[in-house]
Please model this.
Amino acid sequence: MIWLFKSFAELSVVDLYAILKAREAVFSQEQRCTDPDLDDQDQTAWHLFCLPENQVMAYTRLFEKDGYVSMGRLLVDRASRGRGLGHDLMRRALDIIDSNFLHKKLVISAQAYLAPFYQGYGFTTISDPYEEAGITHIRMEK
Model:
């Protein structure tokens, strides 16, 4: 399995298309998120993804904000679930943050039902539940 970590400028057209296709399938079609996926943050993000045969199986984006690192759009393609890719993606993202980012504090907006998954990686909840894109989220940090 090949994992890639690229800046926006380093993404090929094939990479970008596959990423957007996966995000559209998971967030728009499957989860019916109400907010638009294209939020003008991809251009400053780093993109971590598994892309065999031009189809994204797992993906997240990382970027530095005001004194911390943020991770978002974490997904595993529906056909690839149940194989540990979410855990592999999380371990790789945390390793990349430790090695490549000045700010080590990581803050995420997590879908509330995934709190146990993130807690398993040392995240703690720092907010009450709130609605984002029509889905209940919580803010968590590590």
